[in-house]
# Entry
Amino acid sequence: MSLPLGYTGPVSGIVLGLVFGYALENAGFGSSCKLTAQLRFQDWAVFKVMFTAIIVASGGLYLLQALGMVNVVNDLFVPSVFLWGSSIGGVLIGAGMALGGYCPGTSIVALFSGKLDGLLFLLGIGLGTLVFNAFAPQLEAWAWKQTGPDSLTLPQLLHLPAWLVWALLLAVLLAIGFLTRTSRAPDAGATMAAQRG
# Structure
């Protein structure tokens, strides 16, 4: 099943991409300061928004599976884990996000918000892709050498029911939300009244 309405053509991707981009921009992700503040553990908005997206998507997926509309085993591609490739790739993309303040998606949001650094980040992604492609044949055998779990979802890997894994992820989100909540700024009128008193 593909949404919207089972349509798998490019319009579906464009519509969902525009909605996602709008949500990212409204969350303030068109600014490189947002991501770098998350990496400094000063602003948890990125974690909260992205983790909420994971919770909603996974919950919706398992609901559709329970209703018989999706078969997770047959309808979804779950890749194997390549430990060296995933580890080194994760470090490199993390370093790029820390230096540039964007991930690929938020750099596009920044560009369409009129920010020049978003364009520069996208150009860097393009250049990095070309460099990687030039060396891909030499790296391929090494990156795929150490294989981890083969095509397992998180519930399968942990040998736990899907609903329990989902509940644990929700608990993590709620705990982080509680621990990183910020108190509201005091009302200006109340502050002035207190100063006069």
The chain has one domain: 10-182. Residues 123 and 129 are 10 Å apart (CA to CA). The longest helix spans residues 116-143. Residues 10-182 form one domain.
